[in-house]
Known about the structure:
By secondary structure, this protein is mostly helical. It has one domain. It is 79% helix and 0% strand. The protein contains nine helices and no strands. It is found in: Cell inner membrane; Cell membrane. Keywords: Cell membrane, Membrane, Transmembrane, Transmembrane helix. This is UPF0056 inner membrane protein. Belongs to the UPF0056 (MarC) family. Its main location: membrane.
Amino acid sequence: MEFIKGFLHIFIPLFIIIDPIGCVPLFLGLTNDLSPERRKKSAYKAAIVAALVLSAFALIGDQLLFFFNISVASFRVAGGLILLLIALQMIQAQPRATKSRPEEEEESRHKEDVAIVPLGVPILAGPGAITTVLVLTAGHKDFGFRLEVIIAILAVSLITCLVFLYSTRIAKILGRTGTNLFVRIMGLILAVISVEYMAKGLGELFPGLLK
């Protein structure tokens, strides 16, 4: 039970920030001119690219913080703030600047392969997802915990791939209103999680402040 609870604490923030359902319109728009077979390949490749990028950050996150001489507590506060801003955009059902810009999406439509850029990075493995991974792994020296994070990344990537494969059906079932409602609910949960990150970081920076 404790393992499941701990795993969900990792899985839920990653699932919310990657936001497979909210990415469906972007996926459909970017792969609109592709054949069904190539669209499937794009779904597979985008999920694999995102999983590899995020897994790499799960493994080397502490080294990056150490290289830039950033304390774990400071990063938790900054990371929580970034995630809170993203959550507020989700609550308002606004397009997220951390995903990709309209001009980048338009440029990508003219490329042969959109699976790596912008689908894999930055739509799936964007700054928000990378920040979430770094916040989760910061301060954890135990490889077992990092392995849990990587497993959660793989699970979210698998779900994202399945969502993309059935994106046409999902879009028809949910519609724009249903998609926005789902994104808003996920944004609300992410806002609470981000405040917890900031509170923990502030508590470490200023002991006794939040007691």
